[in-house]
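Lab meeting prep.
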Amino acid sequence: MRIFDPHIHMTSRTTDDYRAMAAHGVQAVVEPAFWLGQPRTNPGSFADYFDSLIGWEPYRAAQFGIRHHATLALNPKEANDPRCRGVLDLLPRYLDKDGVVAVGEIGYDSMTPAEDEAFAAQLALAISYELPALVHTPHRDKAAGTRRTLDVVAESGIQPGRVAVDHLNEVTVGLVRDSGCWLGFSIYPETKMSPPRMVEIIKAYGTERILVNSAADWGHSDPLLTVATGEALLAAGFTADDVDRVLWRNPVEFYGQSGRLDLSATAAGPSFAGSSIARGGS
């Protein structure tokens, strides 16, 4: 079973996680920019974070033969902080970079006017830079948030097939399926979506435009839940080809629209200057 995790926050994971992922068939990942838990106070802190996502994390992943890509954005939660608005001016510097395969995560957290503005502005950037968009749906008022999300996507003029709407569940999957956007599902140990629930959704809606990810952020999460979902699909009678489509070919198709996806074999290269890895410690 080969796996491409299309949404996983490896910044919050250890090198042991990379090792386990590689051992279980994870060959490629996309890491979206997100809220780090501690409020950031200026755009410069985002610049350092973006540099890490397009430099350090690809190197760290390569130690285990995993291809790492990123999506970059001002996330919905921090779009509400006036100190962070300058990130919208910073983004063009990064959206031309190799390995940046979408604008994201964008969308809604609390559905505020500030989030409306940041969402629309970043969809416009996705169009301008000919990149797909990865959209976060809110954890509260999810149905209303998803409907508003789809309205803003439609208003932007971006092609629905270039948009992945993530963190879906049984309540919102039909709305997004009918819109023509891609359907993203984050599999968690206790919240959002579980492997058995994901199996039932795929039974009902099929494998087309389905993206299954582990998210694997700072909270209670598991970077091997893509593997568990694949095993659950096989146990439910889906074919190996079905699983390959969901866990590999679908994310390749979606992010391949960026023209920047690199799935060639990777191996550990020379360490970055100043990196502690080459010296065996800090």
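Slide two material, second protein:
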Amino acid sequence: MPPHDLRHLISQTPRVMVVDGSRMVRKLIGDVLRRELPQVQVVGCATLAEARKALAEGAVDLVTTALSLKDGTGLEVARAVRETAGQAYVPVIVVSGEAQSHLEQRRFTEFVTDYFDKALGHEALAAFIQGYVQPEAMPGATVLYVEDSRVVAETTRRMLERHDLKVVHVLRAEDAFALLTAESLGMSTHRFDLVLTDVTLKGELSGVDIVQRVRIDFGYGKRRLPILVMTGDSNRDNQAELLQSGANDLVLKPIEERLLVTKVLFQLRLARMAGPRVDD
């Protein structure tokens, strides 16, 4: 993948399926897609049956779907996409007002690429979809990266720096807390915009401890300081614990650059939409 090219839709004339019982939501998402990709073909579907019919008529390059449909669920849509697409990579995004609770309870399946919570609003939804079709760089944003493997850290650092992100890497949770404390006291040259941490770290503290201390001890909310946790643990209960502790999202290993940077850029854009950085 060339540097800076994070587009999930490589085709200049992609076919995108938007599945939602609400005509307004279908129009909103369609308008965003047409603004970013003038040659896009938007296929609107109100039901699972319509989605299956559209898939039978031709390949799609991206799918957004509501979680609840009149005749089924978005998870059934996601499964149908995977069965139709075969080995092709097709992002499937669930757009729902209940996305966060479903995420925390690990109800999404491996067929779902990502999710968006409608509670974040239409502007955030537009930014989220833009991240998949035409990502916008956030030059100068600073990521505090906690990873105890120097080899893994170097690879991941390069992924982030290729997209104009600044990276401050530390090996231990304790080092991260020292930097965050210095920043909160105005004694640091760094201003951190996001924390990226592995869940398993050497020493007494883990990625879970980082999430909990940032949210409780420092009092930083999810929009004040987003946290992404990298994990290779497929246990849904353990993943749920991370999200319920206050992680904004998870990045599953092995790390895929396009998905990692897309998630980082979205959280950064979302945080900036909240306005000037204040404790919340």
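Talking points for slide two:
The chain has a mean pLDDT of 86.
The domain at 15-133 is CATH 3.40.50.2300 (Rossmann fold).
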